[in-house]
Amino acid sequence: MAFALFALLLAAGYASAFVPNDSMRIYAVTTEGTGLVATLNLQIEPGSGKIWTSVTPLVGTSTQNAEKVAVGVAKRLANGGERYDYKFTINSSASVVDGPSAGAAMALLAASMLTDRDLKDYVSITGTISEDGRVGPVGGVFEKAREAQKTGVKLFLIPKGEAMQTVRLEGGVRSINLLEYAPQQWGLKVAEVATLSEALQLAHSELGKIDINTSAGASIPEFVPQKLSLKGGLGPFKTLTTNYISETKIVISEARTALSSSLLEDPSATHALLEVLNSSEQTISKAEILNEQNYLYSAANFAYLARVNAIMVKEISTSPKLLGLNSSAFDMRLIDLKREIDNFENDLSGPVPREGIEWFAAAQQRYMYARRAVEKLFDEGRTVVVGGNAENEQEIAIAKVGDYAYAMAWLDVAKDFYNLSQESQTFVMRNGTIGQSATSSLYDANALLQSLNDGADKDDIARRVDSASALADMNWFEASYFDSLSAKALVQSENEAAGKDGNALAALLEGKIAKVEARLAASAAPAGWAQLYLDHAKYFLQASKYYDSKGLPSGSAENLKSGISLAFLADSVLDASAQAVKAYEGEKAVERMPEGGQTGNGKNTQDSGPVDNTLIFGMLVLLLGIVFVLAFLLIGAIYAKAPPAANAPSAILSQKKAGESGIAGANDLDQGKIRLNQLRQALATGTITKEEYIGKLGEYLDGIEKMRKDMEDEMRSALPKKGARYGMLKEAAQAKDPKYLPAVVKKPFLLGPAKRNLAKQAFARPRTIPGILQGTSGKEKALNTHQFTFDTMKKQQREKDKRAARGNKKEK
């Protein structure tokens, strides 16, 4: 009797019953946009709570993190499972499996098995899983659902809010409700779920009794504009946008690969980065659709925003030290970016492409946005968080990396516009004809900025005025004129729209569109920007009517205000284009500047006549002799001041004691970092100028980078021995089951459990940014998101309330 009671108590340590082995079909989307099926298998057996993952195919760290979260949620839901081991296998044709979108499937499968229920083979789910059991959004829901019905799935569960999908069909681009479309077209029942509990309930219900008709049509379909006919002058920009989208998809793929192999130790930060990357994938999908509809302005802007996020994820994943405040790794990246910006200035200072002057000015504008962003990061110097903690420091560091990513993306776009401008047939030398108009416009724009009331969106306008001033200082008057006129247009649109109701706003927008259309028809000047802005103003007019018909007057009003801003921008840039073209009408054509034939101030360095080769040779010999003498004196001075020590490269490499070279190198790196901190302090106290700081910083960072590479070379020589030891450990770990290795279990080092959402908030923080095209940011950034659905507005209001609450707490 006692033995039976003991056995019963022992068994109570485990769940009363469980399914030891089960599987589920899961779905992904390839880079080509097609669905891909895989099989998720889970084995549960008595153990100590370890989570194992298969080694074939290779499973990335994001999927391993999803396994860990999924099992944790499932165990809490099942009230048991602590004394089991979990072995996941994903059978797929892919050589590498990675991504968080199988998290909900893992959690559903584990929870079903722990509650002793076989999961029906016709059930599948897509979505991420959070630690509190929420099913999160993922990309490619339509493609996954379509592939699911092809492979026998009858019930497909998707994240809440993902039913409305904008997709390409045979009849063109449409916005569909997947809850209605899937049963009608494929015979597939699709249901939205917000939590794992909801998913578990539906997954184990009788298929015929699941009623989802009540939710069908509850969300308003996203507005899809009618396809535009492409204007002749926009053909090159169409090509640029298409290529930019393709390149951005590559950057996103690289970011996902970097995150999969990242050394990030904080699961919360990893999860936040994954959500940012998922957002990038959804954004680039919107860009592709809008590009297909020939709304090039929005397509390019969406692609730009997707690239910025992908760059940020890639940089942090590659170098987690960027999450530390005052990171030397960040300083090195900033120095490299500044050098690249400075080098590009030479190209923009050359002859003006007459036919491509709009794109040339756009390149100069984007160059300036990148330069000013980098200068701002340099001006901030060393950041000290007073009374803060690790979370505050990480948030500031993330913000800096985000600003760096924006600058990097601006520079990329500037180069694209420059290359587009170089397709011109005629090049002329720069003149100052438009300088007076640009200076006068800049004065007016600044005055208008000062006159705006406190409630207006000043950040975007102030940035344009600042850029226009800096461009004028460089005598790049055409670009300065574009920026200042755009700033004036935004102020005028704010003033014109103030206090008007929906009907008055619609009348204002329709009238402005008609005016710009008439001007475009009568203009012989290049009008690429004006046409791009006008097309998008028409889009917002259509969108306002659509949402008004759906009973969303607030969404309608927002679209009208956005359209008005764009219509005013179209009118202003048409003036800038016309004057820029007129300024160079009588100029004599010159040869296009050859590669490397420019200087930073735009002067032509081409051959101006015969040169004595003997003289050149003699000067080179003299210069070489001077270099040798200086090198000899420098070496002598170094040896005179400092005898060979442990920190000299030759001495380090000659040390025989194991580990001494690594310690010496580490000490050198520490000394280098101390010098960097002293340099930052000197800048902060005004002991040195910003120019001196940048010069010294470059020298210090180059030295640190060289030492780091030297240490890496030494470490590589030790890798074979380390690899052999790792092989022995791997064999020992596989002794129980050769197919599995322990899943990665990462320990948080920055974020505590109570603050696990802080990283996500930091990554998603609003920024004032100029866009890819005419410097869109602030309020204008909202012009391009065109998602004024009821659900979106509610979400925006909730976020606004949260921010207000946080602000009140800080004030208290």
Automatic annotation (TrEMBL):
InterPro entries found in the cross-reference section: Lon_proteolytic, Lon_Prtase, Peptidase_S16_AS, Ribosomal_Su5_D2-typ_SF, Ribsml_uS5_D2-typ_fold_subgr
Record localization: Membrane
GO cellular component: membrane
Disordered, as annotated region: 589-608, 791-812
PANTHER family: ATP DEPENDENT LON PROTEASE FAMILY MEMBER
Entry annotated with the keyword Cytoplasm: no
Signal peptide from the UniProt entry: none
Membrane-protein topology: Multi-pass membrane protein
Protein name, per record: Lon proteolytic domain-containing protein
Biological processes per GO annotation: protein catabolic process; proteolysis
Biased composition (Basic and acidic residues): 792-812
Any matching Pfam family: Lon_C
GO MF entries: ATP binding; ATP-dependent peptidase activity; serine-type endopeptidase activity
Organism from which the protein derives: Candidatus Iainarchaeum sp
Keyword Hydrolase: yes
Domain Lon proteolytic stretches: 92-206
Predominant location: membrane
Listed transmembrane segments: 615-640
